[in-house]
Amino acid sequence: MSTTAGVTAPSAAAPPDASRSDSRTLFAVCAATLLVLMNYTAPVAVLPQTARGLGAGLTTQTWLINAITLGLAATLLVAGSLGDDFGRRRIFRAGLVLLAVGTVGSAVAPNAATFITARVVQGVASAAILAAGLGLLGHAFHTAQGRSHATARWASMLGAGIALGPLASAGLTSLSSWRWFYLILAALAVLLAALGGRLLTESRAGRVAHIDVPGVLTLGAGLALLLVAVTAGRSGWLRPGVLVPLVLGVLLLAAFVVVQARGRAPMLDLALFRRPDFRVATLGAFFTGLAALGPSTVLPTLVQQLIGVSALGAAGLAFVWAGSSFVVSNQMRHLGTRTTPTRQLALGFLLTAVGYLAMLGYADAHSWARTIPGLILAGAGSGLLNAALARLAVASVPADRVAMGSGANNTARYVGSALGVAGAVTIASSLLPAGQTAGFSAHGADAVLLIGGAVAVLGAAITLIRRRATAPVPVTG
């Protein structure tokens, strides 16, 4: 896949039955999603250089990657609910402006704490863009063919962004500094926010706008504390700094469930979990983050440190994985209606597992080329997962709650991703040979692949078991 293909994808043709307004919506949402994912993955290929520039140690390096996931996971459902009630275009454009602010903060950060704070802000902004953006698509496209096409295009931007983000940041780092990536992205976010006012039409649920304050506070704080505990757990799970936020996070999430069950206008309608397709979408998203996003996010750093590949070389390997994901997701706009999303999910998980197994031993062999066949297979699996989840997120909820459905689906995905990243770093840095006290090991890298593959197989098994109770995905509109 060429860089040009990744950049021009947002302007690709809309479904035959799409109006001009729908085509503009598809372009704006896809372009913004591309920016979000480029920003999300930008540090993974230049983590050593970024860490040196900010004076960050190994534990802090995990936060340099995971901070944006913290902001995403904690606010995706909130952003989706606000978009449905107060206007999806309004939340979408506000997210782009906030993304610009956060990326400028990363560009000028003098230390790791400032950079991490800015990345959390970017996560909050990304949550608004992803949840409201997919909600805008769900409102714009009503037919099965139109939705399959639009959500496949949206899903392909996930792969394109993951492909181009590390490549762009590594290229700018080799030319000048990693900070330039964030300055350029901030300018693009501001431009797209301005264009959004002309390209998008407002949509919202036909009911009185309401902010579920107890739900916002309990969910946001609970997820934040849970992810803090998981990320800090790599240095010991029995420390107070891990146990306290872990317990508090679980208690707050339990309180969130109670609040949603008793509230008059809950942010998340718990009755949706009675729908088999909504349960499959949520579980599938969680396992996608855990098995596909987590290990793949850490892989470029492992390749750099264990094999000695340059930042640009590591970005090239990430490009292979994400490029494969982009191509497969993009093709599902033609094939999506010919198979059920649950079958796509199961096949996507199995391809991910096979890809991981194919990469075993790459660090011991000291060969980056050993990873390429596995990366292509795992990337194809990710592409199937992304396309199926986007379709399920829109179709498994009522028409007036499409942004909330997107928020719930992506919350599960990025909670899984945060757990996957933290787990992969912990595993890769714990199986050290005698005499080595820090860093990563070849045995640890293989363990990451084996465990990631096992989790992917588990995801496929759960999907196939749930499929028996799942009716065909209805078209809501």
Structure description:
- Residues 9-18 have a biased composition (Low complexity).
- Its main location: membrane.
- This is MFS transporter.
- The chain is mainly α.
- It folds into two domains: 19-212 and 265-467, Growth Hormone, Chain: A (Up-down Bundle); 213-264.
- The protein contains 17 helices and no strands.
- The longest helix has 32 residues, at 144-175.
- It is globular and about 55 Å long.
- 61% of the residues are buried.
Beta-strand proportion: under 5%
Percent helix, as a range, is over 70%
User: CATH homologous superfamily of the largest domain?
Assistant: MFS general substrate transporter like domains
Number of domain units? 2
Uncertain ranges: 1-12, 470-477
> If you compute it from the alpha carbons, what radius of gyration comes out, rounded to the nearest whole angstrom?
20 Å
Here the CATH topology of the largest domain equals Growth Hormone, Chain: A
Distance between the termini: 35 Å
Q: Total helix count?
A: 17
Structural class: mainly alpha
Kindly state the number of beta strands. 0
Main sheet summary: none
CATH architecture of the largest domain: Up-down Bundle
Please tell me what the overall shape is.
Answer: globular
CATH domain class name of the largest domain: Mainly Alpha
Mean pLDDT over the residues: 82
Subcellular location: Cell membrane
Region (Disordered): 1-20
Membrane topology: Multi-pass membrane protein
Main location: membrane
